[in-house]
Amino acid sequence: MGLSAAMICKDSERSIQRAIVSTLDSVDEFIIVDTGSTDRTIEIIQGLAEQHDKIKLHHFAWTGDFAAARNYSLSLVTHDWVFVMDSDDELPESERKKLRLYCEHYEKQGVRAGMYIVCDNTVNGEITSSIDAIMRLFPSDLRYKDKIHEVVDTDGKDVVIVKSDIHILHDGYDPAVTDVYAKKQRNLEMMIEALKEDQTNARMWMQLGREFIRIDDDKARQFLDRAESLTQDKGLLRWIEDSRNSIK
Description:
The protein is an alpha/beta fold. The chain has helices at residues 16-24, 41-51, 66-75, 98-108, 180-197, 202-212, 217-229, 234-245, and strands at residues 3-9, 29-34, 55-59, 81-86, 89-90, 113-123, 126-139, 143-145, 151-153, 160-170.
């Protein structure tokens, strides 16, 4: 059984080494696709690659489409299973053996499993919230969809979706190390652009609604209502309702 890691990155000098090192011993190869870094990110990756032949650095011209960049990284994977990392993630030491154990378990059963992990968001090193419905461990022939807030496309695929107890730490929304306002602005612009192309994308309307919570709650409700009107997916409907309930 083979397991790869795949990551896309840009201007990630602050955290890229931590992310790679935390995962390297858990996988057979680490595919990294840089989308146009101008800081020390590439230098750091190249330095690590000189020490570890598992690390493979590639480049992809940014097109304004996260799914396209991720799918390029997946196209370079050479093993049957893949674990997708962000450059501001860290795989805690307690979780590192779990990746292979989960893949081996489902491979022995002959099951193609798409596994949700638990993403623990941190601020100042403390966990402030957790999301348990992010698919990060899955068969490497699957691909992503949606330009922003991209997700693994399992529609019509022979894949069983399961929840794991694998945790990762993510500090990408810590205002001490990230320009959260700029990230939100970028996300809003990309979501609006995506909805111009497809106004029936219920998940994108939901994400737009979530972005507007505490910025403009009336608009948030409007976008969440639009999302609800466009889907019958029970998981998405629960997420929409939870989002609506979070509005004070």
